[in-house]
């Protein structure tokens, strides 16, 4: 009996012990779970803190934008994204160089940034600053168009009006064309006449230019001469003239181009006018004189006397022995170009019309239509036609 009771008590004690252990394990599990949550929270918080710190190290400082005061920035030829970013940073346009470099890496168009001056703002977001540098409308330039046929004096006046640089500054800078980029070899002639190395006429290529607003007179003229050189290279003007014009130098061809530009209104006539000039100067023509009013007027212009319509030029002016551009009496080409010819005139002088045995030309109507003659009698008939069409020559 006692033995049975002891057995029962032992079973009850065992059951209590098992229950206690289960409760103990459950309690410990709850504590462990709670501690795990706390630990995860700490780890998460620490991770965010660490991420924030790392982000602060590896993400470049950048303004939020949109920017404030205007900043004028220059991008120079050959500059890298780092170079440009450094300029922007020093002028407080962007918050850091790295921010701009990162923006440039993320934009494939960044390689298209052109040299020049730009209007930006202080405190811009780097990506916005990059976008502005890629926007042609953000460029700060002085734009000027030089029409074909202007004299150097007219060109200086145009440039002065656009840049506000005094005409005198351009005149002074132009006294040494070689220093502006004109190759000295241009000033050679094959007709025994001497070329004036101080004459800029003919080298101021007509085009539309976007000039740096910070450029001085010499820098502006260097830009124009550089364009002249590029156009001559593209046309292959020098080698073509030297190969095909039979001893006529490129400078002489440049003079002819300037005459064709002055005399012909229509591009189709420029090779023909050029051929007539060559025929008279170097062909079988009595005096080898060009007999052109345009050259006389050029001299009147550059000496401050003013140009005149052909019907108003006096006999004394047409035959002035002191006028070096008097082509009515002096044989051959004048001393230099009488203006700055464009591409069509240059091509006409470089490759004049072949098999064109004419010695006279005249505009016979207000549209600029040219008529050509072999003899003085032919020319007189064409002159009468011009008069009938309202050209005041009779």
TrEMBL record:
Its EC number is 4.2.2.29. One of its GO terms (biological process) is peptidoglycan biosynthetic process. The keyword Lyase applies. It is an enzyme of class 4 (lyase). Its main location: membrane. Pfam families: YceG. Residues 317-331 have a biased composition (Basic and acidic residues). It is a single-pass membrane protein. It catalyses: a peptidoglycan chain = a peptidoglycan chain with N-acetyl-1,6-anhydromuramyl-[peptide] at the reducing end + a peptidoglycan chain with N-acetylglucosamine at the non-reducing end. The record marks 263 as: Important for catalytic activity. Residues 317-346 are annotated as: Disordered. It is found in: Cell membrane. One of its GO terms (cellular component) is plasma membrane. The chain crosses the membrane at residues 30-51. Functions as a peptidoglycan terminase that cleaves nascent peptidoglycan strands endolytically to terminate their elongation. Belongs to the transglycosylase MltG family. HAMAP family: MltG (MF_02065). This is Endolytic murein transglycosylase. It comes from Actinoplanes siamensis. The lineage of its organism: Bacteria, Bacillati, Actinomycetota, Actinomycetes, Micromonosporales.
